[in-house]
Design a protein that fits this description.
This is L-lactate dehydrogenase complex protein LldG. By secondary structure, this protein is α/β, with parallel strands linked by helices. The chain has five helices and twelve strands. A four-stranded parallel beta sheet has the order 1-12-7-4, sandwiched between helices. Strands 8-5-6-9 form a four-stranded mixed beta sheet. A two-stranded parallel sheet has the order 2-3.
């Protein structure tokens, strides 16, 4: 018998005579009745709280907003994943086809993607490597990430977000730019992901 099997056998023996306990799972599954405009406003507010740059714009202004944001960063050859809507692809964009090496991704100034879902209550964006999002490395190695979020992709809370995601896919949960703090609470950004996150919300 292995150590693992021995430990599990002892646990089973110890709880054999224990009475069954009912586990109550009455978790809150809603952030309240929010309409579409309220969801957009709450999401934009929470994303901004994470020191991300947020733009709320109309469908016909997305391309111009992306171009202006990239120009402000001085990015002329941003990376774009396959499946990104053609009208969102900026001039001079670099495709990840064939897949770029880690060194090439690290040298790219920034990336433009879509997302799978966005959560208003926590200001979180979730990517699942679907169309317009690309593989996980695309949004971890470049120093700048611009993510376009459609209003219909915004849900109120985490339970609603989890409900529409496929747990078998590689999920990347993003709440603001990459940041960490040491024991003295000195904040350092860009340690394990983009130093700058910019979000374009399409009404």
């Amino acid at each position: 018998m292995s150590d693992r099997e021995l430990i599990l056998a002892r646990i089973r023996a110890a709880v054999t005579s224990a009475p069954p306990n009912e586990i109550v799972r009455d978790y809150r599954t809603s952030a309240g009745p929010l309409d579409r405009a309220e969801l957009i406003e709450l999401f934009a507010e929470r994303v901004a709280d994470y020191r991300a740059v947020v733009h709320v714009t109309g469908e016909d202004e997305v391309a111009a907003t992306i171009a202006a944001a990239l120009a402000a960063q001085g990015l002329t050859r941003p990376l774009v994943p396959g499946g990104l809507p053609v009208e969102w692809v900026p001039e001079g964009a670099v495709a990840d086809d064939p897949p770029l090496s880690d060194a090439e991704l690290d040298a790219v100034g920034g990336v433009v993607t879509g997302c799978a879902v966005a959560i208003a209550e926590t200001g979180t964006i979730v990517l699942d490597a679907g169309p317009g999002q690309g593989r996980r490395a695309l949004t971890l190695l470049p120093d700048y990430h611009l993510c376009v979020v459609r209003a219909g992709q915004i849900v109120a809370g985490v339970p609603q977000g989890v409900a529409v995601l496929d747990p078998s896919r590689p999920l990347t949960w993003i709440s603001g730019p990459s940041a960490t703090s040491d024991i003295e609470l000195n904040r350092v950004e860009g340690v394990h992901g983009p130093r700058t996150l910019e979000v374009v919300v399409v009404r």
